[in-house]
Amino acid sequence: MAFEDNPYDGHTLEEHLIQTEYLTDKRPKTGIVDRGYKGKKNIEGTEIILPSAPKKKAHHIKNKKQEASLEQERELNQLLVT
């Protein structure tokens, strides 16, 4: 589906649902959008699912793993130098 200009995703979703219903003769029960979507959670009976924001813990754990890996690399380098 093409739109003039560059409309915001939240303003085009309803038109996509209408086109989907026209093409398939069925209205989707569920629509899944990305985190950039800011709009209605229900459009004429179609539930809109938005992924939740990532938890800060996951980022913290990733940083800890990176720190541990760097520490192991430093220790290995010290052993190789001596």
What report would you give on this structure?
A hairpin with a 2-residue loop joins strand 2 and strand 3 (46-49). The longest helix has 26 residues, at 56-81. This protein has 2 helices and 3 strands; from the N terminus they run αβββα. The protein folds into 2 domains: 1-51, no CATH class; 53-82. It has a 3-stranded mixed beta sheet, with no helix packed on it. It starts with 8 loop residues before the first helix and ends with a helix. The model has no long low-confidence stretch (mean pLDDT 82). By secondary structure, the protein is mainly alpha-helical.
Spell the H/E element sequence: HEEEH
Strand order of the largest sheet: 1-3-2
- Low-confidence parts, pLDDT < 50 over ≥5 residues? none
Instruction: Provide the residue-averaged pLDDT.
Output: 82
The major β-sheet equals: 3 strands, mixed
Number of domains: 2
What gap, in angstroms, lies between the N and C termini? 65 Å
- Report the principal-axis shape: elongated
User: Which structural class do the helices and strands define?
Assistant: mainly alpha
Estimate the helix proportion, in percent: 40-55%
Strand content: 5-15%
Radius of gyration, taken over Cα atoms and rounded to an integer in Å:
23 Å
Instruction: Let me know the number of strands.
Output: 3
Total DSSP helices: 2
